[in-house]
Amino acid sequence: MATSSARLLKLALPLVPEHGFTRAALARSVLHLPTPHVAPLSDRAVSSLFGSGDRARKTLFRAWLDGGVESMQGARPASVKEALHARLAYNEPALPHLPEAFALLSAPESGMPPFDPMPALKHAARVADEACYLSADQSLRLAWYAKRASLIGVYSAAELHQLTSPQSAHAFLDGLLTTSSTIDSSVEDVRLFSSYIFRSWAGIIKSKGIL
Amino acid sequence: MQRAPRCLRLALPRVQRVNRLARCINTQPDTPSNPTPRTTSFGFKTVPEEAKESLVKNVFDSVASSYDLMNDASSLGVHRLWKDTLVSTLRPGKKGPLRCIDVAGGTGDIALRILDHAREKYADRETTVEVVDINGQMLKEGFRRFKKTMYHNTPQISFHEANAQELPATQFTDNTYDLYTIAFGIRNCTSIPDVLKEAYRVLKPGGTFACLEFSRVNNPLLSLAYDQYSFTMIPLLGTILAGDRASYQYLVESIRKFPPQPEFASMIREAGFTTGKDVDGGAWTDLWGGIACIHTAVKI
């Protein structure tokens, strides 16, 4: 059976800690096939399979991000907190290469605009959504969006923190989640109190015969 | 005294009359469920499969000298840009000398570009290209062209007459080449899967297959304009340039009969190759909105 490029990408992922998100990692993937090649793939072959220039590196990084989501599923987390911790743990072996990889992902191919935040936001949104899904989140309507929006912020901040201070990243994530839940609780209290005020004013207005 | 026929078209009986653009004949099997007699398409027509190979071979004996003119006419000269793109995409010579095989490359268009690219960009004079074509006259045309270049009488170039579907195993041994190219040739072959199978056989593990071919335009507006141009202007050009409208009509029809990009990519994978994703920029790269297309694959 022919080897698919997706399989070569999978084989390249364990090479990321050593070679980074590079074309060299992709080229060396064939050395880890069940029947390994005697030499890495040529540059031309890497371009044919994964795209020319930095496009191949982006392909590898995207595959690595997909692997991150799979790692969350594999950890079988019982809560959002565990899911996000599993995702941060997945980053750890490749941490030295991540700043460059995120910069690469944010650099548009056409050069305009000079910085494109959408891929990073999509990544965080995907992690947040997956964490909610794995923890069997039952939020509906506005709460569905609010929960994910807050987790996007929390995870993005924790991942940024991890890039500079890997040792304290997990504790930082715990702190953010606690703060977030406190904020959620406060917002809920405010919402509930506001509804009481609204109802009481509505009652007063009705009793005056205005409505 | 009986006058010699002016061209092959007139010399052949009606059933064998083939136009001067028979290189553009699409010879894919029509339906796999129709084994006897096996037929293949000739433009939009269906003809017996076994007749194709000799017809194509004979016809090209007569069109070899005007082949470049035909290409220029049908693509308004853009085929030169597409061939440049193919070669610059492959970057021959970048990481050392390559052993290349250019199939259906009789006039040497691709071979010359490969050697020039390797020499000019990377000072590589060791890359070699073996040009293979079923038609001796096309090869002679290529040989004549190469005599004008510095590559003539060097180990860098050689010409071989052979069928792309059955490359002689003694001459073209297994796992030999780093790069296999075929430009505007594969749709003329009787069996595309057989060509791909042979390409897979002769390439080294890690070797690259690259095919430049007319393909399917996906943008509806461009497709409309392209169809209008193809079915009106190209036959008209045929009438003006070669006095042969029907031949150019066949060119247009054969292009329409060639499988679209995803289908051809699937055929490449079925031959054993590994490709990128089935998107533009993955398994193939569309040129000019898909009028032509470069398919690349790797033997893993």
Automatic annotation (TrEMBL), chain A:
Keywords: Lipid-binding, Mitochondrion, Transit peptide, Ubiquinone biosynthesis. It is found in: Mitochondrion. It comes from the Eukaryota. InterPro entries: COQ9_C, Ubiq_biosynth_COQ9. Its main location: mitochondrion. The keyword Mitochondrion applies. It holds the Pfam family COQ9. Residues 120-168 form the COQ9 C-terminal domain. GO terms for cellular component: mitochondrial inner membrane. The keyword Transport does not apply. GO terms for biological process: ubiquinone biosynthetic process. One of its GO terms (molecular function) is lipid binding. Pathway: Cofactor biosynthesis; ubiquinone biosynthesis. PANTHER family: UBIQUINONE BIOSYNTHESIS PROTEIN COQ9, MITOCHONDRIAL. Belongs to the COQ9 family. Membrane-associated protein that warps the membrane surface to access and bind aromatic isoprenes with high specificity, including ubiquinone (CoQ) isoprene intermediates and presents them directly to Coq7, therefore facilitating the Coq7-mediated hydroxylase step. Participates in the biosynthesis of coenzyme Q, also named ubiquinone, an essential lipid-soluble electron transporter for aerobic cellular respiration. This is Ubiquinone biosynthesis protein.
TrEMBL record, chain B:
Its main location: mitochondrion. Its EC number is 2.1.1.201. Belongs to the class I-like SAM-binding methyltransferase superfamily. MenG/UbiE family. One of its GO terms (biological process) is methylation. The keyword Mitochondrion applies. S-adenosyl-L-methionine binds at T107, D133, N163, A164. The gene is COQ5. Keywords: Membrane, Methyltransferase, Mitochondrion, Mitochondrion inner membrane, S-adenosyl-L-methionine, Transferase, Ubiquinone biosynthesis. Methyltransferase required for the conversion of 2-polyprenyl-6-methoxy-1,4-benzoquinol (DDMQH2) to 2-polyprenyl-3-methyl-6-methoxy-1,4-benzoquinol (DMQH2). It is a peripheral membrane protein. It is found in: Mitochondrion inner membrane. Signal peptide: none annotated. This is 2-methoxy-6-polyprenyl-1,4-benzoquinol methylase, mitochondrial. Pathway: Cofactor biosynthesis; ubiquinone biosynthesis. GO terms for molecular function: 2-methoxy-6-polyprenyl-1,4-benzoquinol methyltransferase activity. SUPFAM superfamilies: S-adenosyl-L-methionine-dependent methyltransferases (SSF53335). Component of a multi-subunit COQ enzyme complex, composed of at least COQ3, COQ4, COQ5, COQ6, COQ7 and COQ9. GO terms for cellular component: extrinsic component of mitochondrial inner membrane. It comes from Mycena rosella (Pink bonnet). The keyword Methyltransferase applies. It catalyses: a 2-methoxy-6-(all-trans-polyprenyl)benzene-1,4-diol + S-adenosyl-L-methionine = a 5-methoxy-2-methyl-3-(all-trans-polyprenyl)benzene-1,4-diol + S-adenosyl-L-homocysteine + H(+).
